[in-house]
Amino acid sequence: MSSPSPPSTAQTRTHIPTLQAYNSWSTTYDSDNNFLQALDTYILSSSLLAHFLSLLPQSPTILDLGCGTGRNTIPLLSVRDATIIGLDFSPGMLTVAKERCERAWNALSEGGKVKAREWKVQQWDFFHNSSTPFFSSAPVSFKPDDRDDDADAIISTLVLEHIPLSTFFSACASLLKPGGKLLVTNMHAEMGKVSQAGYTDVATGEKVFAGTSFAHEVEEVLDEARRWGFEIEGNVMERRVRSEDSELLGERARKWVDLGVKVWFGIVFVRNEETRQ
């Protein structure tokens, strides 16, 4: 992220469509010191992702829904004999994800380490519930319209802010088999009411915001999930930024310590109904 503008010059702020924003953001997404992304990664890597994976059957098919640049797709490549599919609507993000996953996959192969059976990244349109092949490490028989190929698990992190709840959970219900697990993390509504996803364009210095942002309340998320046959497993996890987090999360996290609002939540669901709405 570029340095703040001089006090005498207000930073220009602009909103652009979400797809356009993420295509543009893809070149700096992994290096712009996004504290919420850093917090999400920290919580996932500390215990949450390992706990989620322990709930899955052997040789699972796992979807990373809204995979972005592959931040969570990469650790999934180490799940033994799994089929890993990263789905995102941004070609720019998928290009970065492909390159990062290829490097990680090759490193696992060269090191003789445990790894997935195969992986691919694929363009996915939430609003039309459709997909387009993008890149695959091997032939992967995943067809979202075929019940026999439904996934065992979905992980979707920091995506829900951009999607109406009914659209999100209807898509998850169409992709996940009964008994399948869904891990969702997102910006908390307390933060979402005063902030939204965005970045500074390094070429122009403009602050760019990504389309429509939804400040989904946790109870609203739980209610809509139930409508689509999902029930919570365990407890809702909620997180503020603590003073001791500043070193881990960077300078941009400090103001959220002072504000004291919740910034993140995470929920594990199980899909428990055969009927899809």
Q: How would you describe what is shown here?
A:
The protein contains nine helices and eleven strands. By secondary structure, it is an alpha/beta fold. A hairpin with a 4-residue loop joins strand 4 (118-125) and strand 5 (130-136). The N and C termini lie far apart (43 Å).
Give keywords:
single chain, 277 residues, alpha/beta, 9 helices, disordered N terminus
Strand sequence of the main sheet, in spatial order? 5-4-3-2-6-7-11-10
Structural class by helix and strand composition: alpha/beta
Number of strands: 11
Overall spatial form: globular
Overall helicity: 25-40%
Outline the secondary-structure elements.
Layout: E1 13-16, H1 18-25, H2 35-54, E2 61-65, H3 73-76, E3 83-88, H4 91-110, E4 118-125, E5 130-136, E6 151-157, H5 165-175, E7 176-187, H6 189-192, E8 198-200, E9 207-210, H7 218-227, E10 230-240, H8 246-249, H9 254-259, E11 262-271
